[in-house]
Every structure is written in structure tokens, then in C-alpha cells.
Design brief:
CATH superfamily: Metal-dependent hydrolases
Structural class: alpha/beta
Helix content: 25-40%
Largest sheet: 6 strands, parallel
Number of domains: 1
CATH class: Alpha Beta
Bound molecules: zinc ion
Order of helices and strands: HHHEHEHHHEHEHEHEHEHEHHEHHH
Shape: globular
Distance between the termini: 25 Å
Oligomer: single chain
CATH architecture: Alpha-Beta Barrel
Length: about 475
């Protein structure tokens, strides 16, 4: 399928476009001249045609056979494209590392049930899974979060991914996600608009919150956090989610779009993802520069609106600018420690210390490029290194569940982290902080206290029209 971001013209008779929809099974989509020459019974054959006295038994002509063959191929191709391949990609790219002598499962200690467990990064909304139903692939959904005693999940929203994406150098000229959006049958508006992709994913959260009937709380302000804590004291199957934007390319260069994103529930934004944006340089971009002039205005507006900054994927220069210009702490939602695992994705000790000293948090990733290992032990190794380096108050979990990476565990096994932390002798107060208390306290401090933006469900529904 073409990577072209323009949606196909609905009026065209392109057969791929027609197949999954109204023409499937209608039998005829041919021009009148073809119909006449092929003698279609539907268009009224002349009486007494000697080549096929009985239309029901008439042998198929070569053109008709070819047409049926092409249609069958297109049906099969369309079925694969729309219904098999997206799930195959999800299943194969968001996998689990095999259990090995290093990647073992420990008994979960009773302490785990007593923790407030929070994770700073999951890309689950990118995939066509119902987050309220337990899936047997991928990493995160509400039922598995409940099994793992998870309390609060950051749902990060990806809107664009360069073809051949890598940690070293990417341009923003190409996008591998368009095909995924089309194949997953997302609304046509999402095919060409990054903003619409962000809007669509926020709608998925809204719909899930309504359907969950109280089991899922959308955290948008301080009071929601308190509500979550109270609700969980009564019923530990209540889960909180909050929304973050992975890369401000989705603002489509408009500062005013920040207001819309706020009204769609976004409470955290990263300036960049894998390529440089109008706002800042990415550590995987071409220029790797700092905040642009416009980016400084972006920062000012986000701080004014109590939208938290995520420095994950930001270039060194951007991080230095954030340290210099941000008046509030910011966090790194998912990443690794360069001293433990040396690559261009992970942060130096100097940078980790600076983010922590400003009051920020570091979410430790679970995937192998974050920790240079494929086990819970390797995740915990990075956590203990960080705790020694920057203190227990600045460390958190940043799994990158469902982020096109494999993981040693899914959300159902979050207790494995607690078990391993305990196994290597991390004291209980530190375990409590790292497993989620730090995230809770950070959000309690930095989320808005008033319902900034739209929180009422009806208003959210009405705002759908504004998402152009
Ligand atoms: Zn990421």
C-alpha cells in the first residue's frame, strides 16, 4: 500500500478502495459497455442469444473469469491488509522476551498488593485493541493492569514515525504510520492529519472511560488523583489513565492548537519524538538543535496551562534549554542510563542529575536498548543505579509498553519488578516511591487544580467537530 498520506478519492473506482465496503458482493462494478459485451444477465441480455440459451448455465468468458479472479484476489488482499497484517505487526513487534535463566519469574511479595503502582509510558492507543478487554498479545490493557495491581498508566500518543526509524538520525520527511492508520481503518481524517491522529486517540480514551462505568478514571487534574486513590481504597480494580503527547509535531506548528489538545485531555507533551520539529531538536533528528524561538513560546504556554513537559527523545541541546528556560520540573517519561547501557537513546549521568535536581523524574524503560538486557533484573539494575545516582525521589517506571518494542513483562506482571527490587535488597520505602508514589506526588504537584479544559463528557463529544 502506498505511503501517500493523501486519502484515496472516494469517487474513484479503484478496486482496493471499493472492496471492503459497499461493492463487496454486489457482483457488478463494470462499465455498461463491458456489461453488454460480457452479456451480464443483470443488464438484460437480448432474447435468443445462441451462445448461452440458459443464462444460469452459461460458461464464464475469459474477461469475466479474470474479473472474478481479480475480485477474489482483491478481497483476499484487502482482508489481509485490513484485518490480518495490523494485528500481526502489533503481535510481533510488541512481544515478550522469552523466559531464560536470567529472565525468570519470582514469587510476587505481599508488599506489591500494598503499593500504588504507576507507569509513565505506554503507546497502547496506537493499536486497535480494546483497552477494556484482556488481549493475549501486546503489553497493556486494563484487565492486565488490574492483575498486576497497576494504579495509574500514562497513555502516550504517537502520531508520526519516520520510515527506517533509528536512534541516530531521522528526517521528518517520511511517515511509516500512515499505512498503519489506513490498515487499522482509522477515520480518513487521520490519514493525512497528525492532529486528527492525536484527537482520535483521545477519543478512544473517552469512549473507554464511558464504557468502563467507573473502573477507569481519566486523570486530568489534581482532584482526579485523589478520587483515584479513594476509589482504589474501596476497589483495587479501579485504574487511572492520563494522556500524553509523544512529539509536538502533532500541533502542526500552531501554538493555538495547545488549547485544543488541552481540551482533549492532554496533560503532558514532549517537544519531539524521532525527528526535529518546529519546536525543538530530537536526539534522533538531523540537526539535534535546542528549543527554537517558537519552542520557547511553546514551553511558556505549556507551563502557563500546567501541561507537563516530557524530555524523552529530546536532543542534548533541547534538554539543556529545558533545564535553562523551564520554570517547573519536567520529566523523562521513558529512557535509560548511558552509564549502564551506552547508546544515543540513553542519558548521561550529568543530564540525569540535572533533571532530578530540578525536581524531575526519570522513567526507566523496560526494553533492551534502555537497559542492555532482556530481563526484569536488567530493569532493576538500571533502577538501583539511578537511585544511587540521583536519589529515590526521582526514579519511576517508564515501560514503553506497546511501543514497538519487546519487554520482559506485560502489565499483568508488574509485581515482578517489586519482587526483583526486594530480592536485591532495595528498602521498602524506596520500592514504594519507585513503583509509583513518585509519579503520584509529581502529578499531585504539577497537574492543574481546576478542570482546565474540557472534562465534561458531553462537551468532549461536541468538541469532536473542532478537531480539524
Ligand atoms: Zn518513545
Amino acid at each position: 500500500m502506498s505511503q501517500d498520506s493523501n486519502p484515496p478519492d472516494d469517487s474513484s473506482e479503484d478496486r482496493d478502495d471499493d472492496l471492503p465496503r459497499e461493492h463487496f458482493g454486489s457482483g457488478s462494478h463494470t462499465s455498461s459497455s463491458q456489461s453488454t459485451s460480457r452479456g451480464s444477465p443483470r443488464v438484460g441480455r437480448p432474447a435468443g442469444d445462441e451462445t448461452s440459451p440458459d443464462p444460469k448455465k452459461r460458461p464464464l468468458g475469459p474477461w469475466r473469469k479474470a474479473g472474478i479472479g481479480a475480485l477474489a484476489l482483491a478481497v483476499v488482499g484487502g482482508g489481509l491488509f485490513f484485518f490480518v497484517i495490523p494485528q500481526y505487526v502489533d503481535r510481533s513487534k510488541n512481544g515478550l522476551y522469552p523466559l531464560t535463566t536470567e529472565n525468570i519469574h519470582l514469587p510476587v511479595p505481599p508488599l506489591h498488593k500494598d503499593l500504588f503502582v504507576a507507569d509513565l509510558h505506554a503507546d497502547t492507543l496506537l493499536w486497535n485493541r480494546d483497552i477494556l478487554k484482556e488481549s493475549h498479545f501486546g503489553h497493556w490493557d486494563v484487565p492486565r493492569m488490574v492483575k498486576g495491581n497497576g494504579a495509574l498508566q500514562t497513555l502516550s500518543v504517537v502520531t508520526k514515525s519516520p520510515k527506517g526509524q533509528n536512534y541516530e538520525r531521522n528526517s521528518g520527511d517520511t511517515d511509516a504510520l500512515t499505512t498503519l492508520m489506513v490498515a487499522q481503518r482509522w477515520p480518513v481524517a487521520t490519514w493525512s492529519s497528525l492532529k486528527q491522529r492525536a484527537f482520535h486517540q483521545s477519543q478512544k480514551v473517552k469512549e473507554a472511560v464511558v464504557a468502563a462505568e467507573g473502573q477507569l478514571i481519566w486523570i486530568q487534574k489534581k482532584q482526579d488523583l485523589e478520587e483515584l486513590r479513594l476509589a482504589r481504597a474501596e476497589d483495587s480494580s479501579v485504574v487511572g489513565v492520563w494522556l500524553s503527547l509523544e512529539g509536538s509535531q502533532a500541533l502542526e506548528d500552531s501554538l493555538d492548537a495547545i488549547d485544543e489538545f488541552q481540551s482533549w485531555g492532554y496533560r503532558m507533551m514532549a517537544p519531539t519524538h524521532f525527528f526535529d520539529t518546529a519546536w525543538a531538536g530530537s536526539r534522533h533528528g538531523e540537526g539535534k538543535g535546542g528549543l527554537t524561538e517558537k519552542g520557547r513560546e511553546w514551553l511558556r504556554r505549556l507551563e502557563e496551562k500546567s501541561i507537563i513537559i516530557d524530555g524523552a527523545h529530546a536532543s542534548e541541546a533541547t534538554l539543556r534549554d529545558l533545564l535553562k528556560y523551564a520554570t517547573k520540573p519536567f520529566l523523562i517519561s521513558h529512557g535509560g542510563v548511558k552509564a549502564v547501557c551506552d547508546n544515543n537513546r540513553n542519558l548521561s549521568d550529568e543530564m540525569l542529575k540535572a533533571v532530578a535536581q530540578k525536581g524531575g523524574l526519570i522513567g526507566v524503560g523496560f526494553w533492551s536498548d534502555a537497559t542492555c538486557g532482556k530481563s526484569v533484573a536488567s530493569v532493576v539494575n538500571s533502577i538501583t543505579y539511578l537511585v544511587k545516582l540521583i536519589g529515590a525521589d526521582s526514579v519511576a517506571l517508564g515501560s514503553d509498553f506497546d511501543g514497538y518494542v519487546s519487554s520482559p513483562i506485560d502489565a499483568a506482571d508488574l509485581g515482578q519488578i517489586t519482587a526483583q527490587l526486594q530480592k536485591v535488597g532495595v528498602p521498602e520505602p524506596t520500592i514504594r516511591k519507585v513503583m509509583g508514589e513518585n509519579v503520584y506526588q509529581f502529578l499531585l504537584k504539577h497537574l492543574p487544580s481546576e478542570p482546565a479544559g474540557v472534562t465534561d463528557e458531553t462537551e468532549l463529544l461536541e468538541s469532536e467537530d473542532a478537531g480539524n
